[in-house]
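Just scan my protein:

. . .
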Amino acid sequence: MMRQERAKQFMPFAALKGYPKALKEKEKIIVPKKELASDYLEELNWELKKIHRRDMVTAIYFCQGEYRKITGLVSNIDSNAKMLTIVHTDISLDDLYAIQKDET
């Protein structure tokens, strides 16, 4: 048997495609959305007023039963639609938990 054909015997084989991804989804712990206190909302609103397009920010937001963290440039802030766009991720301002302008 040639060397290349022998090597094929030991190549990894995934009998169930998508199984590792399904396991990872099962491991995810779904949490309820936190209700923010009014003074914390005022502080968050104050931080949002300091942020402009093309600012580098780090934001924590609620999405699909979990809190996610994203760092990137602000592409758009739409106060009428209550939407914040960081790179290509649209975040509802109602789902925003924390935001910080990165000073670099």
